[in-house]
Structure formats: structure tokens, C-alpha cells
Amino acid sequence: MSIFLNKDNKVIVQGITGGEGTKHTALMLKAGTNVVGGVNARKAGTTVTHKDKDGNDIELPVFGTVAEAMEKTGADTSIAFVPPKFSKDAIIEAIDAEIPLLVVITEGIPVQDTAYAWAYNVDHGNKTRMIGPNCPGIITPEESLVGITPANITGKGPIGLVSKSGTLTYQMMYELRDLGFSTAIGIGGDPVIGTTHIDAIEAFEKDPETKVIVMIGEIGGDAEERAAAYIKANVSKPVVGYVAGFTAPEGKTMGHAGAIVSGSSGTAQAKKEALEAAGVKVGKTPSETAVLARELYKAL
């Protein structure tokens, strides 16, 4: 089992002919992802050549729109490698086509564009689950990768991971590679994102294969505090947490666009306390967090 993504998902790539789209389409195919085509209005009707996971050449069709790609291929998932200034239109196009899952990798999309797209999705019945933007996407090891996470870090296993940080996603997967993961999802660190910690934790709670949930947060905002309240009220599985940014100075904007700290709200300490009050074990470092997760799993 897994959450949101498995080997049966049919994936299209918005921006398949660009540099990032080309590179990561190849890597996703190598990971076993069922990529069935791409979208680029200016290159509609052409094909791109890639290799499947067995090294055989395949021709992927390029369509003019997401709706056409879905109609012709049966795609249910899209990943967008589109420059920031065009990303809002790409997201809206995917929402209009009612694609069930959309992963937006792009960093630097203006917050008002993401906020508009988020509200647009809500207004249209929330039929598209958006992951991101500014994220590494989602991977169900040995089944499917829709994103930029290196697929060879780890295999399948009992840990469910949700993280605001891309690099910390990779580190946690490496630290717990001996156990493996049901699904690892990078939700992105921007102030407005599609899928939240709570969305992922709710799905992991329902997934029978996920035995321990690892949640990585970072300073700024109140997403981790809200997740703590949700965990306390709704989650029966053990949850381990890590919050990046214990040494961040107050009042300074750090790293990810969402990370600004004012007073005690949004600090790593405040988040740690909220999580611990909800029964979540919180590590001081990613490595310590991995040790806690391993201990909890062995105690099951």
C-alpha cells in the first residue's frame, strides 16, 4: 500500500520538452514511473524519445493541453516543470482538466499566484490534489516517482514520511533506508501549498502498510502546531517529528519563503513543544529523529 501514488498511476509531464522536464522524465522512467506523455502547447503533435526502466527506447507523445493528454492516454497524474511566471496558468489548466493528482516542483512561484490557484481549486470542488509548489514531489519506492527525489535511496517499507524540506526528505530516507518507506512526500516550504502535513498524516493513518509516521517541519507559520493538534485528536500510529531551525534568529526570514519567525510563534521550540504535547517524539537532529523512528518501529 501507499498514499496518493502507486505503480498504476499514469503520469504526464507539463513542460516535458524543457531542460528540467527532459532530465527528470528520464529519471522518473528509470525509477519505473508509468510516464505516458507530456504537455507543451508549442510542441503539440510531436514526440520525445526516452528509455524505459529496461533500457528500451520509447516515444512519448506531446499534447497541447492537459485535458487532451488525459483523454488520449488516460493519465491521472501530472507533474509540472514550468518556469515560475507560467506556473499559475499550468496549474489552472490541470485543475480545469480535473486531473486527480498534480505535483508542482517549481520554486519561486509568486505567493499570490499560488494563493489564486489554491482558491481556484477549492472553488472548483477540490477535485485535484496539488502537492507543492517548491517541493521534491512524491515517491512510493519500487513503484513510482513523481518528482525529483533520487529513487535509489531506499526501498519499500513501513515508514511514512511527510516533509517541508526537500534535502531533509532525502536525508531521512537515507537514515532509515534499512527499514524503507511506504511513501515519502515533500510538501514544500512556501507559505501557500496544496497538500499539508495534516493531509499526508491523515492518509498515512489510514494506510495499513504504514506503521510509523515521520514528520519534518521547519520554523515559520503554524502548520506544525496545527498538525500536532490533529495528531492528538485523530492519530493512533506512532509519530516522530523534527523541526529545522532551532538556531534561527528571531524576526529574520530564513531559507524557504514560508519561514519567518516573530516572537515565540513559529519558532522551532514552540513547534517542538506543541508536538511533544501531542505525544510526538521530537528529535534534535535528523539523525536522532531517525533513531527515535527505528526504536518506535521495533517496539511495535
TrEMBL record:
It catalyses: succinate + ATP + CoA = succinyl-CoA + ADP + phosphate; GTP + succinate + CoA = succinyl-CoA + GDP + phosphate. One of its GO terms (biological process) is tricarboxylic acid cycle. Pathway: Carbohydrate metabolism; tricarboxylic acid cycle; succinate from succinyl-CoA (ligase route): step 1/1. One of its GO terms (cellular component) is succinate-CoA ligase complex (ADP-forming). Its EC number is 6.2.1.5. Substrate binds at residue 170. One of its GO terms (molecular function) is nucleotide binding. Keywords: Ligase, Nucleotide-binding, Tricarboxylic acid cycle. The keyword Kinase does not apply. It is an enzyme of class 6 (ligase). CoA binds at residues 17-20, 43, 105-107. Residues 4-109 form the CoA-binding domain. The active site is at residue 256. InterPro entries: Cit_synth/succinyl-CoA_lig_AS, Citrt_syn/SCS-alpha_CS, CoA-bd, CoA_lig_alpha, NAD(P)-bd_dom_sf, SUCC_ACL_C, Succinyl-CoA_synth-like. Succinyl-CoA synthetase functions in the citric acid cycle (TCA), coupling the hydrolysis of succinyl-CoA to the synthesis of either ATP or GTP and thus represents the only step of substrate-level phosphorylation in the TCA. The alpha subunit of the enzyme binds the substrates coenzyme A and phosphate, while succinate binding and nucleotide specificity is provided by the beta subunit. Belongs to the succinate/malate CoA ligase alpha subunit family. Heterotetramer of two alpha and two beta subunits. NCBIfam families: PRK05678.1, sucCoAalpha. This is Succinate--CoA ligase [ADP-forming] subunit alpha. It comes from Gordonia jinhuaensis. The lineage of its organism: Bacteria, Bacillati, Actinomycetota, Actinomycetes, Mycobacteriales.
